[in-house]
Amino acid sequence: MMRREFLGVATGIVGTANVQFGERSITSSPPPTVRDWRAAFPALSQRIEGHPLAYLDTAATSLRPQPVIDAVAKFYSTDNANPAAALHTLARRANAAVEGARASVASFIGASDPLEVTFTRGTTDGLNLVASAWGDANVHAGDEILIGMAEHASNMLPWRYLARRSGARLVYFDVDDGGRPRIDDLVSKLSARTRIVAFSHVSNVLGMINPVREMCTTVRGPGRIVVIDGAQSVPHVPVNVQDLGCDFMAFSSHKMCGPMGVGVLWGRRELLEAMPPYQTGSNMAHDVGLDALHLSAGALKFGAGTPNASGPVGLAAAMAFLRGIGFDALAAHEQAINRRMLVRLARIPQVRLLGSAEPQHRVSVFSFAVKDRTPLDVMRTMDAQGIAIRAGDLASLPLLQRFGENAVARASCYLYTTEEEIDRFADTLEQLIAS
Ligand SMILES: Cc1ncc(COP(=O)(O)O)c(C=O)c1O
């Protein structure tokens, strides 16, 4: 895509539907750069404490570009209606918008059928859906649920509660001292009673990309499902759910430039059909009489009540935006950010980075502890300089404790992060340590 075209798309001057993956430039215009990408994010034009905002908190939630904000505003300005395929014009438009978004998501993640795409409130909601709907029907006393000890609380507690409800045993597999999943431990903890295996694709603490394809191949088996937490991977790396070989994958719109309050649970169609509904009410069934009903097909069975229609519309716009940038360009940019960050952090002996210090096979997420400074001190010092980072247990206390920490600071970057921002961040860290 040419630079001028990207700016047009990014600022909403041309429709997002024009964004094409892999489109070739036919003139000598320079390709879009991070400066062009940044121009699409209105939040970046503000100052915090007199400093330009450096937003290094994307792993918690990303910023949103103008086309996403416009898509949501357009839905409410024009298509606003409770979606229905065969009613009035606005209802049909709203329905087409949601179903169009479902098809966009299916194509973005390589699903074979849009009806494998359930819109949820986010990753947490999607994982709870699997634990409740599939888990309650298929996991019994004496069964086992195998998950990583490194998981985010949202990929731990739904399984813990399922184990408690069903009488199943929750088993954890370990990571090595570098934070990589220990495949030997995963294999040794697998048993004939294992019904569910769940792990994350990318750690929200370490940023490391786990070998999930290999892990899925290793653990697949009859009567067992494999669930991937894609909250930190889908925003950063191309994901093809069929190629990965999992049964379910959950992710959130708000970490990939889309609106908050919407996410996706992808599941194999045959599993969705065999599962009972999660919540019940309108829209997930038809011909509902006093004693009878017909459940809706595939993912539609999990959409009880009036949907969050603007959410999927905004998510589809976010996916179009990311496609316009392209995952190759995004990966090249994140590699440059990774190199700069790792070089700068390595120069500060008081900083302890958790996990790999290699720029490859990771996204731009960096959790660290600073000698004699609390993570809250680090966060406050950064905030006073207009630099947004996160501090705390990152909803991953067991993993932090595996590294001997109870809390850390985390800087997490994305397509709008510049190398200058990384330098500002590292300079501020050095000044704090020197003070
Ligand atoms: C790895 C991981 N899993 C799950 C979640 C939960 O996502 P959400 O809060 O959008 O439901 C997060 C959020 O930080 C995450 O990083």
| Mean of pLDDT | 94
Percent helix, as a range, is 25-40%
Which spans have pLDDT < 50 for at least 5 consecutive residues? 11-26
Main sheet: which strands, in order across?
4-10-9-8-7-5-6
What binds here, in terms of ligands, is: pyridoxal-5'-phosphate
What percentage of amino acids are in beta strands? 5-15%
Large-scale geometry: globular
What do we call the CATH homologous superfamily of the largest domain? Type I PLP-dependent aspartate aminotransferase-like (Major domain)
Oligomer state equals single chain
**CATH class category of the largest domain:** Alpha Beta
Task: Please name the CATH topology of the largest domain.
Answer: Aspartate Aminotransferase, domain 2
Intertermini distance: 47 Å
Q: How are the SSEs placed, and which strands pair?
A:
Layout: H1 3-10, H2 34-38, E1 47-48, E2 51-52, E3 54-55, H3 66-79, H4 89-108, E4 117-120, H5 123-138, E5 144-148, H6 157-166, E6 169-173, H7 183-189, E7 194-200, H8 212-219, E8 225-229, H9 241-244, E9 248-252, E10 263-267, H10 269-274, E11 285-286, E12 294-295, H11 310-325, H12 327-346, E13 351-353, E14 365-370, H13 375-384, E15 387-388, E16 390-392, H14 397-402, E17 408-412, H15 419-434
Parallel strand pairs: 3-15, 5-6, 5-7, 7-8, 8-9
Antiparallel strand pairs: 1-2, 4-10, 9-10, 11-12, 13-14, 14-17, 16-17
The structure holds pyridoxal-5'-phosphate.
Pyridoxal-5'-phosphate is lined by residues 122-124, 152, 154-155, 200, 204, 229, 231-232, 252.
